[in-house]
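hey can u check if this looks right to u? its 343 residues, i copy pasted from the old doc so theres a chance i mangled smth
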Amino acid sequence: MSRKLELLPELLPPKDLPSLGPRPISELTPLAFQINVFACGGVVIGCYMLHKVLDMASCGTFFKYWADLVRNQAQDANVVGPNFDAIVKAFPPRPTAEPVFAPDRVNGPPKNIPSFVVLVRCFKITKNAITSLKAMAGSGAVPGPTSFEAVAGFVWENVMAAACMARDQSTPKDTVLSMSMNMRPRTNPPLRKESMGNCTTIVQAKAKMWETTLKELVGKIHDVILKARPKIEKFQGENGIEEICLDIKEKTRIIMDENSRVYHLSSWCKLGLNEADFGFGKPTWIVPTDANPPPSLRNSILFTDYSDSSGDDGIEVWLFLEEKEMHFLESNQGFLDYAFPNY
């Protein structure tokens, strides 16, 4: 691991804040910040966020509005502040505290699993590389894949290959890409992007290990995203909570299936984090980890925005994989032709 990743824990709030564990939500810390100012003029804002009450879209709105306040632009007609009512009205809270998740999911991972080390690495995919991937990923079913679809399919294909190389025949035959989705633009009517809360759902694409091409993977991703809107509309209103509970239980069952390898993907791109200018320029690096991932983050994938000094806007891919699988990925020239290490 490079020195810059090793330094990350020092730039974040203390980890002993009351933000974890089986406690009432009133006892948890929803937000914590540490502001780091360097002699060279650089600034790092470290943040911990309680996902029970906020998602990354909300965090992006918070940071952008905070930066606008600092720069005295909050009165600008183009600046829209956070909205705390819209999500509650669209998704009324459940009147009881009945648990939603399956007991095995609540109590932690299965027992008697082998110990492993999870490594975190980040790779930049430039604008030109994304253009090439979109051309490669296009098909009759999806003639114009989005940047997200092309990059997600490319990463999924390569982490599957690394898993197969590392585990040989012991690798599960099935694989699932479990993607976190922002519901705001997909509700009826769409919610404002400034709506605060945890307004996400999960969509899952399934494939066979080794047996699926990039075009097919992108087609599967595109299909589940397309089918999400009518399901999200069923989540709304007074009776929507029952649909949400059924959906969560089914997605949890798939995640807990020992016969499938599940990858968890979340994109933080275009959520406002890259626009938070406090007066000294927009962020040059968005880091979604303290570089010490727990085993529970194994097989997680995160996308963030990045811009370099030449003006190239691309996607940075953060991967959390078992040590052996990460080493296979790092030696895969087909992956490195499009994804450039940044660690």
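Confidence is low (pLDDT under 50) at residues 102-112.
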